[in-house]
Design a protein that fits this description.
- By secondary structure, the protein is an alpha+beta fold.
- Helix 2 runs antiparallel to helix 7 and helix 3 runs antiparallel to helix 8.
- Helix content is 46%, strand content 13%.
- It has a domain of 144 residues: NADH Oxidase, CATH 3.40.109.
- The chain binds flavin mononucleotide.
- Flavin mononucleotide binds next to strand 3.
C-alpha cells in the first residue's frame, strides 16, 4: 500500500494532451468526487462546490476563458472547483445546522463553537476571507488528484483561466460561488509531458526537522 501511494504520486503528472475518445467511468468519477466531499476544511465550513461540466458547448466556452487550453474541452471530465463567496452571510449558520442534525443536538449545545467561528470570520477582512475560502478548495483538489492517480486516471489541475469569465459562463455569481481551480480528468493521448522525468526539489531541501 505504502509503495502504491508513492508510485501513484510519481506516476501522476500534469497532463497536457488528453485522448478525448477515452471516458472515465461513472463509478470512478463518483469516487473522485466523493473523496473531495470528504476533504477537511477550516472549521468544517466546506466552502466549495464541485461542478462537473459535461455540456460540450459550455466546455468550449470555458476553454476560451482558459486562454485556449485544449484540455478543458478534450479531457473526459472537467470539474470546476468553486469557492463560496457568501462566507460572511451563510456559512456559519449552515455549519451549525448540519452539525445539530448529524449529532442530534440543539443549537445551544454548539454556542461556544458558533462564537468561535464568528470571531474568526469577523477578524478577517473581505479579501482575507475570500482568500481563505478559496484556499480550502485546493485541499479538495489535492485529495481528488490523489484519488484519481490511485485509480490510474490521468489528471491535470488548472488555474490558468479568467475567473470572472468562468463565473459568467456558468452563472456562478448568482449562486454565491466563484471559480477557484479546474480539475481535468481522463486518459492522456500523445503527450510528450508523460515521458518527462519529474522535476522536484530534493527531500532534504523541502523538509526540515527541528529537534
Ligand atoms: C493550482 C494549479 C494550477 C495549475 N494550472 C495549470 C494550467 O492552467 N495549465 C497547465 O498546463 N498546468 C497547470 N498546472 C500544472 C503545473 O504546471 C504542474 O503541476 C507543475 O509544473 C508540476 O508538474 P507535474 O504536476 O507534472 O509534476 C497547475 C498546477 C496547479 C497545482
Amino acid at each position: 500500500m505504502k509503495e502504491q501511494i508513492v508510485e501513484a504520486l510519481k506516476w501522476r503528472y500534469a497532463v497536457q494532451v488528453f485522448d478525448s475518445a477515452k471516458k472515465v467511468s461513472e463509478k470512478d468519477l463518483n469516487t473522485i468526487l466523493e473523496s473531495g466531499r470528504l476533504a477537511p476544511s477550516s472549521y468544517g465550513f466546506e466552502p466549495w462546490k464541485f461542478i462537473v461540466v459535461e455540456n460540450p458547448e459550455l466546455r468550449l466556452k470555458l476553454r476560451e476563458a482558459a486562454y485556449g487550453q485544449a484540455k478543458v474541452s478534450e479531457a473526459a471530465q472537467l470539474i470546476v472547483l468553486a469557492w463560496r463567496t457568501d462566507g460572511r452571510q451563510n456559512i456559519i449558520r449552515e455549519r451549525i445546522e448540519r452539525t445539530t442534525k448529524t449529532y442530534g443536538v440543539g443549537a445551544e449545545a454548539l454556542k461556544d463553537f458558533q462564537d468561535m467561528m464568528q470571531g474568526s470570520i469577523d477578524r478577517q477582512t473581505d479579501d482575507a476571507l475570500a482568500a481563505d475560502m478559496k484556499a480550502q478548495t485546493y485541499i479538495a483538489l489535492g485529495i481528488m488528484m490523489e484519488t484519481a492517480s490511485l485509480l490510474g486516471i490521468d489528471n491535470a489541475p488548472m488555474g490558468g483561466f479568467d475567473a470572472a469569465r468562468v463565473d459568467e459562463i456558468l452563472g456562478l455569481k448568482e449562486k454565491n460561488l466563484s471559480a477557484a481551480v479546474f480539475l481535468t480528468l481522463g486518459y492522456h493521448g500523445q503527450d510528450m509531458a508523460a515521458e518527462r522525468p519529474k522535476v522536484r526539489r530534493p527531500f532534504s531541501e523541502v523538509v526540515e526537522f527541528i529537534k
